[in-house]
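Supplementary Methods. Inverse-folding protocol.

Structures were first reduced to a discrete structure-token string of length 331. This string, shown here, constituted the complete conditioning input.
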């Protein structure tokens, strides 16, 4: 039986046909090295950000997926990493790979996620992580909370906006105002090129130069480099996909709520569900698995950091896959 993957939150829809046509033209050139300085890609991303954000290529550094960017940021500014909980596990895993200290701060208040760091922890930390919208809860972090964190933090504040395209909420316009801000964006959840691996960090030039000093040469492969340029030109076609994903996800969440369970806000291509009881959540996870549906259990330390023992995260897929998940849950 072929499993339906509702675990990994990559984009479950293929890139537009126009994007695929342009990508095919690049396959015959894979015998060449990537550019190395990635100037064409950097210019394309600056154009994508728009004229209201006055950034240049000196504000950007690209990586082999956002995982590498997270690792590079941690190596430069880590030491004492302040990480909210629950959130994306790669922040703490990157710290562990460099034998760094982690301060974990719970943000769940009566089942709701609220970013509220302790001031003492903010003064201790050399690097603070914020995921917006947060993975896996889906909650949007108010802009004022991020600004307050930037004001109070002793060290760098990394804001992971890899789901930005689903919300339009960003603090990238604050890069020039705050010397301790670095914004991260990806191309997997939004542009559907997870298999090529591409991520970017956005910050002041002096911060970017620190990352460049430890970045491997040719860390982004040629197909990923060209794919980044191509997909950014087709954002209007992708907007239709992002809108469709949110519509499917919110419909799924509404069905879950009618069953008496508690879905978290849908602001990205996943839905976190509180099944209200640990035993019930475990039974549902196994039932879905036995019916050919793979999901992410909140109690898996490899995936999420935090107390989510009665939660399961569902990646948003095509309508028929989400409908099947609902049917299994109703049995």
């Amino acid at each position: 039986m072929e499993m339906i993957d509702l675990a990994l939150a990559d984009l479950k829809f293929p890139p537009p046909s126009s994007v695929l046509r342009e990508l095919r033209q690049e396959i015959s050139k894979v015998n060449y090295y990537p550019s190395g300085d990635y100037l064409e890609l950097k210019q394309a991303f600056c154009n994508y950000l728009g004229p209201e954000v006055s950034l240049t290529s000196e504000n950007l550094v690209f990586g082999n997926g956002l995982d590498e960017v997270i690792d590079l940021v941690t190596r430069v500014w880590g030491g004492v990493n302040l990480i909210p909980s629950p959130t994306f596990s790669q922040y703490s895993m990157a710290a562990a790979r460099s034998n760094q200290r982690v301060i974990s701060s719970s943000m769940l208040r009566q089942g709701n996620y609220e970013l509220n760091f302790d001031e003492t922890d903010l003064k201790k930390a050399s690097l603070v992580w914020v995921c917006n919208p947060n993975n896996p809860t889906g909650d949007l972090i108010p802009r004022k909370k991020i600004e307050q964190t930037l004001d109070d933090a002793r060290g760098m504040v990394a804001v992971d906006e890899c789901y930005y395209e689903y919300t339009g909420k960003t603090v990238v316009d604050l890069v020039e105002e705050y010397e301790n801000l670095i914004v991260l964006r990806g191309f997997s959840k939004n542009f559907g090129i997870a298999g090529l691996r591409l991520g970017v960090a956005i910050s002041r030039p002096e911060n970017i130069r620190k990352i460049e000093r430890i970045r491997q040469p040719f860390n982004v492969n040629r197909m990923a480099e060209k794919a980044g340029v191509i997909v950014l030109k087709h954002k209007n076609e992708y907007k239709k996909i992002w809108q469709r994903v949110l519509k499917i996800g919110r419909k799924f969440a509404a069905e879950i709520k009618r069953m008496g369970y508690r879905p978290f806000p849908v602001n990205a291509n996943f839905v976190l569900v509180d099944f209200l009881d640990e035993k019930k959540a475990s039974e549902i996870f196994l039932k879905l698995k036995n019916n050919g549906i793979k999901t992410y259990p909140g109690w898996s330390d490899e995936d999420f950091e935090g107390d989510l023992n009665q939660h399961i995260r569902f990646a948003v897929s095509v309508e028929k896959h989400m409908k099947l998940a609902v049917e299994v849950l109703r049995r």
